[in-house]
Amino acid sequence: MKTMIDIYELLKRFGIYIYTGDRLGDLELIQDEVKELYKTRLLESKDYQTAILIIRQEERRVKTGK
Predict the structure, then answer these.
(1) Per CATH, domain 4-64 is 1.20.1250.20
(2) What percentage of the chain reaches a pLDDT higher than 70?
(3) Residue 19 near residue 29, CB atoms below 8 Å
(4) Domain edges within the chain
(5) 3-state DSSP assignment of residue 9
(6) Does 65 have pLDDT greater than 90?
(7) Would the pTM count as exceeding 0.90?
């Protein structure tokens, strides 16, 4: 897992689709869903940590406009 596309693909495997039109809102919902997948043991620790890191990097990128 290296990009947001990989995270979207991961969520899609579980039937989770997120698009509200608000990029930061979407990222928050995605992060919540990833946390829930980890809590229910559907995600391994390494995948969880990688996904959270990618999401936070994307949030910083969106906030700074880069």
Answers:
(1) no
(2) 100
(3) no
(4) 4-64
(5) helix
(6) no
(7) yes
